[in-house]
Amino acid sequence: MLDDSDVNRVGVTGQVEFDSHTSDVVEYAVALVNDVTAGERHGRPFAAPAGAALVAAVRAAVSPDRDPNRPNAADAAELAGWAMRLRGVVELVDRGDVDAACVELNAIMRETEAVPTLSRHDGEPWHLHFHGSDVAWALSWAASMATGLAIVLGNAAIDRLGLCNAPACDRVYIDISRNGTRRFCSTACQNRVKAAAFRARKAQPASPNF
Predict the structure, then answer these.
(1) For the chain, N or C: smaller number of CB within 10 Å?
(2) Which domains are seen in the chain, by residue range?
């Protein structure tokens, strides 16, 4: 899915192509933002988790860690703070203010000390990460997620990133489909909109026949 070495691009078929690491990182970022930031979700208010629930949400949103003690409560709280910053970037993109989104994302990458670094671990070949090898857990994830989103903002795929178009939902979506028509965070929200449109059509009075 997303690899730090992945480069977002739109292929000749029109389908967005990511290398596996970049795709994973972007999807982790979207999952994290959706699961730990407050707002609305699937038509209902959504409260940001706290305490043990926050640790569980962060652990579920990101790749399994080699250290079973990660993330701890401090890690989860720190990464949730970065997730709020990343949500702000997506909100700017959704409003069409790409300039402000890029300025903010540049600031996040500087603050997280994002830097391309070749790394080899766990029997894997050398591959590219977007953070230093000795960076703290939460900061390393924040740097990677910010850089993954920067790849999206820096090319034609930017119009495939935004906030759910369903009423009472502000969760993030990233569309990597071939036709690029996704505008909802989930099938649940897409079905809500379809059902509402169907009910509205049924409620319209029938046209008289002459």
Answers:
(1) C
(2) 9-203 (1.10.3300.10)
